[in-house]
Amino acid sequence: METFLTILLDGLQFSSYLFIVSAGLTIIFGVMKILNVAHGSFYAWGAYTAAFFIGKFSDMGMPDAMGFLIIVAAAIVVGVILGFVIEQGILKYMYDRDEVLIVLATFGLFLVLEDIILIAFGTDPYFAYQPMALLDSVELGGIIRDVYGLTLIAVAALVALGCWYLLNKTKWGTLLKAVIFDREMGISMGINVPLVYTLTFIGGAILGGLGGAYIAPTISVAPGLGTEVIILSFAVVVVGGMGSIAGAAIGSIIIGILRALAVHELPQVELFVVFAVMAVVLVFRPEGLFAPAKPRKI
Amino acid sequence: MKHNIFARAAGLAAISAMTLGAGTALAKDAITIAVPSFLTGGAAGPFGIPAMNGAKMVADAINAGKLPAPYDSKGFGGATATVEPIDEGGGATKQVAEYRNLVEKRGVDVIVGYISSGNCQALAPIAEELKQFTIFATCGTPRIFEEAPRKYVFRTMGHATADNVAAAMYVKEKYPDLKGYTGINQNYAWGQDSWRDFDLTLKQIMPNSTASDKTQFPKIFAGQYGSEISAMSLDKADLIHTSFWGGDLEAFIFQGNARGLFKQKIGVFTVGGTAAYRLGKKLPDGLVLGARGPYGILVRDRDSALNQWFVSTYKNLYGTYPSGPAYQYGQAILAAKIAYDKAGSDASDEALGDALRGITFESFSTTVEMSLGGGHQAVTENGYGITKYDDENGENVVTDVKFYPGSCIMPPEGVNSVDWIKGGMKGAKC
User: Fold this and answer.
1) Which end of chain B is more exposed for a tag (fewer CB within 10 A), N or C?
2) 3-class DSSP string for A131-176
3) Prediction ipTM score
4) How much is the pTM?
């Protein structure tokens, strides 16, 4: 029972980390049909910005609880600035181009943003342990867990709830769904699609930044941070179905739980599990488990 | 007659040109040393940058003739060296292409560096093919000189077997009642070799302790170890071995510390030395800490003139004490000087190799014997200590430091590391 609870919590914690990042990736793809490789950079920039300011504020003698405000602020600032500049400065001129070209453009952006991180923050890592240290630890299932790690599950649940509410209970959600379903029809119905694109990209970038900012206190924030996460996020959205929030949530949970199970019971296959799941889904359901329905155009 | 004068003039001109040309070749005033190291990515901060700093500092001092005796002669065989930093990031395929570029297009004189075992493993045959004098500074896999004889490739520090045999011996001395152990190591040559050597050695010297059947091998640069920490917390093993390095090492320490892992289990960190100066108070007390040899925090107080020069110059230049990689790269640059001083600044790659092969030299913190792999692989002592935060001085220190001689922790010449450990480490002189 203890092992079961531990695997469940480990799995959910890892799923939460995956979901927060991949939700942004899948929203951007769902609305804009852009496979945004630069999403990994939003994650890295979120982590760096949060770690930098948490360290600075701590040095100034501010209370450690400020760290949580900084995490949220870092995600918003990074998402708004990077999202706006990239969408308005580059992507908006490429919407009519081939999707592969846009992927290549975002890959180029990823490399550029990684290099800007090196210029802005240097090669030395940043440590922002204060928020994690503040929340202490608790014994669950016979082992000690850091409370900060557990709060990640709550943050992911809030993000999922927020996305669900936005899509299903607001006017904006209706507009988004209309654009997702048929962009041309949306334009003809008077929806300001360019504005929807800009806001969607910024929203996705904020989620990417939030993933990095929230993880920052648990890691050494160092160059190359965004590479690993983007690979895992792609696996999640492929499993769940590209463009589906529910798919990203289910994909994250499947991958997170199976990975935790492998780590506990058969560590040798831990690396294999994530991509085995993806391969199986691709064989039997190439569009992913929860891919949104596509309109049939004649 | 006229024809004869022209012939003589042409002959004189040719001889003058040949003499001038020969003069240029003999009096080589400058050499270029390519120094590959991680300048980007997660390994740059803890490894690549200190390593590059160590290399530059030593090369500059050699150029200026400011190293303590016996290395106080100016230059590399009299030649001034230009250090050309190369980014080691990007994987082995990129490094092979970069190496060929350095040798075939840019014509560098010597290549000194490399941190990643994967890169060294890929580059050793290329160096032999291109006949390029190359000194590996830090990479650890023992396979480089055990799988094939080398002529142009050298390594001036001990390999991973030394790190892990020494770790096992230290564990036996400090924790003789150890019942079980587990490990978390990166899933590539370095991590797998490190665990294998540690596990095999403990099986030999502590047969009553048992290895966990759930040792962890996460992907390199994974960064998230929540599940692994849970699995190891539930494991009955008393001790955790890890060869994590760079950002992975620091992330694991943060996450493990927050979950009380190092209060429940003994942590053995074979490459932990790089974290000692960087993490400060965030490094838990009581960890068994290695530095991949007699380097960094383990030797900071050694009072040889060379070591004191190294520590004080590095601290003055970079504002922190030198960690292991700084020492290791400085040591490899020093070996290049010794080879050039012996063979001459215009020496061929073969002559430089002959000059370094099989020699013994005093480095900054230890004696280096090039006595394995046909004189291409260094043997040095290796040591471990226990971490403790010194509140008075506000820094980490290591206590209970113990060093093991190279002849105790590395196999004799011609014997494969794995066979040597499995065979009960015959011939070990401890």
Assistant:
1) N
2) HHHHHCEEEECCEEEEHHHHHHHHHHHHHHHHHHHHHHHCHHHHHH
3) 0.86
4) 0.86
